[in-house]
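Practice problem: predict the structure.
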Amino acid sequence: MPRMNLDKRKILEAAGALANELSVKKLSLNALAARLGIKPPSLYNHVESLDRLRRDLMAYGWETLGDEISDALIGVSGDEAIRRACNVIYDYAARNPGVFEAMAYYNSDDGEGDSPADRLSAIVYRLCSARDVSEAQAVHVLRVFRSYVEGFALLAKHRSFSRDVPVRESFDLGVEFLIAGIHRLEDAHRAQPENGAGKPPEGSGNHA
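Answer:
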């Protein structure tokens, strides 16, 4: 029988710690069992397979990151909310390199329902709903937001930036470019005649 003091959350926390130390590609069930202080066969009482573990780790990462972003945005709005959301993601990736790499390669087309990344999508859509940005443009904002923040964090993780200029300064500058782009979308949308296009619904599940 499974150990009573071992639950899925504890397993994922241990798997996340190992992925951060070794990389998600080097994560193994034997190493996880050793970290948990159990024999590998006992781990199968809780874990279906290594592939399933990695996919659960992806979902765990999106869940914990979503919680951190939500907490950071309490009482914050406007451009500062976008800055905080971007910085929370960057900091999370720096602290959890293995988990974040798993999250970045999540495949939402697995037939198992909504993507865990929808939590982040909903947050971005809420930020857009507070701005004068059309629903169609909000989808573009989400794609650019994820491409920039997640892509930059992964490049930084792999130490792809070699020049002697602080990487975080480059990231912050890019966030300001993103905010400036959103303001341009707002200006363009206001300049158009009213066509009935609404803003993105709050909490939209479309992860683009």
